[in-house]
Specification:
The complex is a heterodimer of chains A (about 300) and B (about 350). Chain A is mostly helical. Helix content of chain A is about 70%, strand content about 5%. Chain A has two domains: about 1-75, no CATH class; about 80-300, MetI-like (MetI-like fold, Orthogonal Bundle). In chain A, α3 (about 80-110) crosses α9 (about 210-240) and α5 (about 135-145) packs across α7. Classes of the chains: A mainly alpha (about 300), B alpha/beta (about 350).
């Protein structure tokens, strides 16, 4: 009925299209939005006596995200402890993104300029760390940098240092760990961008008397920019919520957002505050993704 | 190796002959259950025990509270037993079904968190103190100043386990308060003390059994059984009982209200109160167990270990951590957050 007509066929296609995408929609609704709604709802409730929540509406948790009431004199001030923790996480994530970019760009360039056959091998090598669990990789790094670890033992044996360097439990240790863990996430999108790069453009640049620096800045970087943005987002977003690496390598003295949220759900017994902090973390990620979306159309122009 | 093989064979054999009902699900702290104990239980009763690990009281509570966990037995610490009971998560014990209930040492029967052992029986108990490597610091280890006011040799080197309840209790007792205090003058001193001490700590981490054994960390807040394991690897390490006050804890085992294998659970509780079996629990994790007569079956090294047998002069400094009220817990979390920012 009506299927023979142009309009009817379109309608039918639209309907079967909906039906075909139904499983995906259900999965998104139940798997992604469902838990998120629970987190959002919990952030507006009162904490339970020992754990969980009481079903009483309250804005207390959201109030506590940004403001704190001093437990000793009752004055209300900006929650500098929370802001310090958020800032530490953001700083570490930005630093990790910057370091992975600096290390990742030459690596990706190197791989993309290899002959096709060895290129597959190099890419394969980049993915090897993913074969092992994150926790095991982190403990492996610890084994390398601890006081009686591989690095210090080697430096001592070579006579370069006299006492072991304290790297473990420092900001440097966390940065080393994070860079190692997230480097592949930077290299792969950069490789994809450089792989599509038309190398004749470099020659054209030189023909027009551009210096090497100018070719890099004015020709290469703008064209592979989508790859840079994609890689930066892929590194920045998970770094922000990183939990294992700062805890194991950083010695746990200074909290990151991830550890702080965990405290609220565990020993802190304040699930609503944990939920509202999670929502704030999510908002930061959304902002980062919006930046990505706004930069993405550039990619079409160069395709 | 042979022993493990035999135990495995025994478990497999009993599993294949046992009917479907003969299983038991134990939810316990990680690295805390002696596999030989379970093999012996299986050999005697034909019941196969499956162990699932947790790493904190709060995560155990959250999982059990969510319902449908499928666990029969759980092993909360003293300050969490009243929480489990108040939420109706543990069923009252029928003492008539526990022939060995009389084996509980008298001092562990009428305990504040479970008077008359209405809901739980002892699993293991121990203390939280300080572990010190004497080759780095040879002074008196029996003080919480080791981490609250570190001696020059330990400045920048001491570790503090990130266990809020234990660390806060030790700092509060150091300032003359009682654990879970809501006295703001005491808490203010506690905050100042901790904030001033923190720059002198190297880390706030778990896993001291390994890290102090291999000299990565020279001093730490630590548990007694773990310290005994360290001393076996690194004889320079001693355990200190802070004279200002230190937490005593006990983990007790109870049957969950929604347990499916209640008969088997009762058999297990009765089984672990046999002195010989209680000693097997202790010989694995290196903590005392609270069952009379188990000493005779304990490994020789544990009977005299200074980590396990509390010296008389420090007995009175030990205090059980009560369950803090929500307001006391909120105060502690606020101080803790300020400390960790």
């Amino acid at each position: 009925m009506g299927i023979g007509t142009e309009e009817g066929r379109k309608k039918h296609q639209a309907r079967s299209g909906w039906l075909l995408s139904l499983p995906a929609l259900v999965l998104l609704l139940v798997g992604a939005s469902g838990p998120l709604v629970i987190v959002a709802v919990y952030s507006f409730l009162k904490p339970g006596e020992y754990s969980g929540v009481q079903w009483i509406f309250s804005l207390e948790a959201w109030f506590k995200v940004l403001l704190e009431k001093d437990i000793f004199d009752g004055t209300i001030s900006l929650a500098d402890a929370h802001l310090a923790i958020f800032w530490r996480s953001a700083k570490l994530s930005l630093l990790t993104t910057a370091v992975t970019l600096v290390l990742g760009l030459p690596t990706a360039w190197f791989i993309a300029t290899r002959p096709a056959r060895s290129r597959a091998l190099w890419l394969f090598l980049i993915t090897i760390p993913f074969w092992t669990n994150l926790l095991i990789r982190t403990f492996a790094i610890m084994e390398v940098i601890r006081n009686e670890g591989i690095l210090n033992t080697a430096l001592l044996a070579l006579g370069l240092i006299e006492t072991p360097i304290q790297i473990l439990y420092s900001g440097t240790a966390v940065l080393i760990g994070m860079t190692y863990v997230y480097l592949p996430l930077m290299v792969l999108p950069l490789f994809a961008a450089i792989d599509r790069f038309d190398f004749r453009l470099i020659e054209a640049g030189y023909d027009l008397y551009a210096s090497r620096w100018q070719v890099l800045r004015r020709v290469i970087l703008p064209i592979i920019r989508p790859g840079i943005v994609a890689g930066s987002i892929l590194v920045f977003v998970p770094s922000l919520g990183a939990y294992v690496t700062p805890r194991v390598l950083g010695g746990g003295k200074n909290m990151m957002i991830g550890n702080f949220i965990e405290l609220q759900f565990g020993q802190g017994r304040n699930w609503p505050l944990g939920a509202s902090l999670s929502m704030v973390l999510l908002l930061i990620v959304v902002v980062a993704l919006l930046i990505y979306v706004r930069t993405a159309p550039q990619e079409d122009r160069h395709d | 190796m042979k022993k493990i093989l035999l135990a495995t064979v025994a478990i497999l054999a009993t599993a294949s002959f046992a009917n479907a009902g003969d299983t038991l699900n134990l939810y316990n702290w990680g690295n805390y259950t002696n596999p030989d104990l379970l093999a012996k239980f299986a050999a005697e009763t034909g019941i196969t025990v499956t162990v699932t690990d947790y790493d904190s009281n709060s995560s155990a509570l959250a999982k059990v509270e969510a319902g449908g966990s499928g666990f029969d037995l759980v092993v909360p610490s003293a300050n969490y037993v009243p929480v489990f009971v108040a939420k109706g998560l543990l069923q009252p014990l029928d003492h008539a079904r526990l022939a060995n209930i009389g084996n509980i040492a008298p001092e562990w029967v009428d305990v504040p968190w479970d008077n008359g052992r209405a809901h739980t029986v002892p699993w293991q108990w121990g203390t939280t103190g300080v572990a010190v490597n004497t080759s780095v610091y040879s002074g008196d280890p029996n003080t919480s100043d080791i981490f609250l006011n570190p001696p020059a040799e330990l400045v920048g080197k001491v570790n503090v386990v990130p266990e809020m309840a234990d660390v806060m209790a030790m700092a509060i007792m150091h300032e003359g308060g009682v654990p879970c205090t809501e006295d703001l003058t005491v808490l203010k001193r506690v905050r100042d003390l901790l904030v001033a001490a923190k720059p002198k700590w190297r880390s706030m981490d778990y896993g001291m059994t390994e890290k102090m054994s291999n000299n990565d960390v020279p001093a730490s807040v630590n548990w007694n059984g773990s310290t005994m394991r360290i001393r076996a690897n690194n004889p320079a390490v001693v355990y200190g009982y802070p004279r200002e006050g230190y937490p005593v804890w006990m983990d007790s085992i109870g049957i969950l209200s929604d347990a499916k294998n209640v008969d088997e659970a009762y058999k297990f509780l009765d089984f672990i109160m046999v002195p010989e079996n209680a000693a097997m629990i202790s010989s694995f994790a290196r903590y005392a167990n609270g069952i009379s007569g188990s000493d005779a079956f304990m490994p020789e090294a544990m009977k005299t270990a200074p980590e396990i047998v509390v010296p008389a002069e420090f007995l009175s400094a030990g205090q059980f951590l009560p369950t803090c009220s929500a307001s006391a817990a909120a105060l502690q979390t606020a101080i803790w957050t300020e400390l960790m920012k």
